[in-house]
Design brief:
Shape: elongated
Strand content: under 5%
Number of strands: 0
Helix content: over 70%
Number of helices: 6
Distance between the termini: 105 Å
Radius of gyration: 30 Å
Order of helices and strands: HHHHHH
């Protein structure tokens, strides 16, 4: 009986050792997928960094669209304050909320590209004299033949439904100018992030134009 026990004990120990070794291999095998996942996340993180490859059209697009957006926000904030219609006030809030982050994005691109930031204008609007025009038509920066200061002065003088109607008229013209600028970027630009934003601006602002035309028809 003792002899049989002495024979079985080494066999049991050897079997237990093999089981432990097998468990160790399973633990090691589980590690690489974790490393692969974390390693795969890095490229995604770098996609938020501005691509340095750009041309003059990209620079002009960013500089001019920043100023253009600033003008839209100035008008939109006034609509939030003065509009008679709840729809117009809500529209103003939406425009301001959407275009503020886009301004920050384009400012970060210009910094990353080593380009000059868009020049500040006196009223947050469009200072045409300081802007490099590139291939973009400066008419895209005007509304009904007026510059930003003239537009703001007119809107300030209005109230009630008169304000709402004129605001919508002018913002529709303003949005059409942004679409024109974005289309120029799609034609001449190079930077992938700038091209993506140009497409987004075209889609967003055409949708808002349709909304404003509908609101205007009901006033």
């Amino acid at each position: 009986m003792m002899t049989r026990y002495k024979i079985l004990l080494p066999v049991a120990i050897a079997t237990f050792t093999l089981v432990l070794a097998g468990c160790g291999e399973s633990t090691e095998d589980a590690s690489p997928p974790s490393d692969t996942v974390s390693g795969g996340a890095a490229p995604g993180a770098t996609q938020t960094t501005a691509d340095g490859a750009h041309n003059d059209a990209d620079t002009t697009f960013a500089q001019m669209m920043i100023v253009h957006h600033e003008g839209a926000i100035e008008m939109a904030d006034l609509a939030v304050e003065k509009a008679d219609s709840e729809e117009v006030r809500a529209l103003g809030e939406d425009i301001s909320a959407a275009q503020g982050p886009e301004i920050e994005k384009m400012q970060s691109w210009l910094s990353a590209w080593g380009e000059e930031p868009a020049p500040a204008s006196g009223t947050g609007g469009m200072d045409h004299g300081d802007m490099g025009q590139g291939d973009m038509d400066m008419g895209a920066m005007e509304m009904d033949g007026m510059d930003q200061q003239e537009v703001m002065a007119e809107l300030q003088s209005l109230s009630g439904t008169d304000f709402d109607r004129r605001f919508l008229d002018l913002m529709i013209a303003h949005h059409r100018g942004a679409v024109e600028m974005a289309e120029s970027e799609l034609q001449d630009g190079r930077n992938p992030q700038a091209l993506d934003l140009a497409e987004k601006i075209i889609d967003d602002q055409r949708a808002e134009i349709a909304t404003m035309e509908q609101i205007l028809s009901n006033l």
